Structure formats: structure tokens, C-alpha cells
Amino acid sequence: MNMNSITHTAVLAALSQVQDPDLKKDLVTLNMIRNLTVDGRKVSFTLVLTTPACPLKDAIKNACVTAIKTLVSADAEVDVVVTAETRGASDGRFTGVKNVVAVASGKGGVGKSTVAANLAVALAHAGAQVGLLDADLYGPSMPLMFNLRGQQPLIRSDNGKDRMVPFTRYGVRVMSIGFLVPEEQAVVWRGPMISKALQQLAFDTDWGTLDYLVVDLPPGTGDIHITLAQQFQPRGVIVVTTPQPVALADARKAAAMFRMPGVTAPILGVVENMAYFVPPDMPEKKYHIFGAGGGKALAEELGVPLLAQIPMVETVRTGGDTGKPVALAAKSPEGAAFGELAGNVARALAVLD
Ligand SMILES: Nc1ncnc2c1ncn2[C@@H]1O[C@H](COP(=O)(O)OP(=O)(O)OP(=O)(O)O)[C@@H](O)[C@H]1O
Ligand SMILES: [Mg+2]
Question: pLDDT tens for residues 246-304?
């Protein structure tokens, strides 16, 4: 093949044959190809993905190379630099925050906080700028889960306004009521008090620029949920459930709440936690202690994806209790499950309008 045939136009034409599988449009139309240069056989460009947590990173990159080699020249030497610009809307009261993502459940103790902490860590691991707001004012978990108990945040004056500086752990900026008041004091607030306290915690924190702000909610449907839906402009809600019928029934109620008029926030999908038990000495075995298929059935009923199935394993609990979320071990099976969750959440957000 003639090496002179490699032109800027021909390369762009080839790349316009490659689709983003989620956005269902070609990469050129989506403005995902930047800085294209052609020098003899050398073709180089930047591929700008919609999220650093894109699970299809390698597949899209390979599709670009294949398109150029088959449609332009088999001799082409293609050099692709992959970066990301997270999509999202940064209006509302959180300036600089592109995607507020809430983690909810109907029933208590199903693993919301565990999912929120590990999702945040996994998104940060993928290269995103991530914050984590512990909105469970009745029973904050994040000081423990990030090994930050007893810490008090610094206050920084910003144009005459005092703002709290979140703690940064494992690449995640964390804020919790647990840093501000003694643990036993937080639980007594109700109604307008709790709404006001949550808004202060959220909006008086100096989050900086964030691709994702993960919000860990208390169980059920109460003042905190209404405040979130009405004040935070969440881009999406993740519903956590365990597979047993009682948890599913409550998860259904929580989902229904976010679909009420005036409280609307899109449900991104379902996470089935404690989906199955893997005995440490028999890693090939799966025991469906709480039943099987519940998360999938709920997702189908709600018309949303099942974002992940997280196994029940001791390391998930010890990770929480020792302040080292299991998602830090990205290659372990349970760490990988949270990595997959992060990718799926990022994709679900990237395809929203
Ligand atoms: N996949 C899992 N494997 C093992 N233990 C888990 C798993 N998920 C959660 N846990 C443990 O279950 C307990 C409850 O989890 P967590 O605090 O995340 O639930 P929650 O839904 O946030 O509870 P609450 O409703 O009280 O806020 C914790 O001790 C946690 O470590
Ligand atoms: Mg919790």
C-alpha cells in the first residue's frame, strides 16, 4: 500500500466509522478526537473519553487503530493518547461538581455506606476527581471507613466566607457530620434542623472541582432524601439491595420515592450487595445465602441496569472497619467488583442528557 495515501482527511473519515458503544454516535461527531497529526506513516491523536472510569477504554482505542489500518493504510503507525473529560452539569449550588450521585436503600444495613465508600475509591482509582459526602447525619460511617475518626476539618476563608476543607484519603475528598459533632449527638435532629445541617455540610465544604460527588444516604425515605432531591440536583441515584425479599420490597419503596413528583432524580441502576458468599478456603464456590436473582429482578422491574453484584466476603467488612476500603485492592475479586461498578456508574452518567 502507498504510504503517501495517509492524509488527515482519510484518517478522520476512518475514525468517523468508529462508534462510542454507549453514546451510539461516531467519535468524530462526538468531538472525541483531538490534536490529530499525520507525518508520513505516523498518525497521532488524543482520544478524549467521556469518563476516566470508562470500562471500554481499550476497546475504543483498539477500534481506532483497526479502522485506520484497514481503511487508510496497513502501514500506519498509530499513536493514541487517551484522556477524559467527564460529562455532567455543574450548575446548581455545588459549583464545580459535575455529577452528584446518591447511594440509597430502603432497608438499613444492606451495605449502602460500603458501596458508597468503595465506589468513590474505585472512581478515584480510575483517575476521576471524586468527593464523598456522608449524608447519614443519624449514623455517619465515613470517619470509620476512611480511618478518620476524631479528626476535625480545617476552615479556610474564601472571599470572606468560611469553608471546610474535606479530608483527602485514597484520592477521595471526604466530608462527614462525624468530623463536626460527637457521634452520639447527631442522631437527635429531625425535620428542618436536619435539612439545614445537611445543606451546611454540603455547601460549606470546599470540594474544588469534582467529576463525581458520591452521597451516602441513611436508610429509608426521610428529610435527608427530600433535601438531597430538592437541593442537590443529583444526576443519579443508585439503589442498593440484598437479594432477600424483605430488602427488595424496601428497595422498591426507596426507588418509588425518587420517582415522586417534586422529588425526581433518575435511578441509574441497582447494586446487589451480599449477592453470594464465597468461602475463603473454597474460592470457586458461591453460596446464595440470601437467595439468588433478586437484584436482577428488581432492576428489570424498575427498568434500569443491574450495575454490579458484590459478593459477601470478610475482606469487605474488615476493609470498612479498618478504614481501608477493599476497592484499594483493585485486583482482588471483590475489589474488581467495585471497579466494575465504578465503570458502569460512569457509563450510566455519561449517556444521560
Ligand atoms: N459485601 C459485603 N461483604 C461483607 N460484609 C459486608 C458487605 N457489605 C457490607 N458489609 C458489612 O455489613 C455491615 C453494614 O454495612 P453498611 O454500613 O455499609 O450498611 P448500610 O446500608 O450503610 O447501613 P445503614 O443503613 O446503617 O447506613 C458493615 O459491617 C459492613 O462492613
Ligand atoms: Mg450507612
Answer: 888 888 888 888 888 877 789 999 999 999 998 888 878 889 988 888 899 999 999 99
Verify whether ligand 1 is closer than 6 Å to residue 136 (CB atom). Answer: yes
For residue 1, what pLDDT is reported? 46
Whether residue 239 is found in the same domain as residue 307: yes
Domain housing 205: 97-350
CA distances from 316 to 66, 193, 278, 288, 326 (A): 40, 34, 12, 17, 6
pTM for the model stands at 0.92
The answer to the question of residue 89 being in a domain is: no
The predicted structure's pLDDT at residue 90: 64
Distance 178 CA to ligand 2 centre (A): 13
Tell me if 113 CB under 6 Å of ligand 1: yes
What is the residue with the minimal CA distance to atom 19 of ligand 1? 111
Q: Is residue 224 part of a domain?
A: yes
Query: Can you read off the three cell numbers belonging to residue 273?
Result: 450487595
Atom 26 (ligand 1) nearest CA: 109
* pLDDT value of position 91: 67
Alpha-carbon distance of 52 to 17, in angstroms, equals 23
Bridge partner list, 44: 37, 79
Q: Are residues 239 and 270 in the same domain?
A: yes
> Which positions of the chain have pLDDT values less than 50?
1-3
Quick one: 176 and 52 in the same domain?
no
Residue with cell 472571599: 159
**Domain-located, residue 92:** no
Q: What is the CATH number of the domain that holds 48?
A: 3.30.300.130
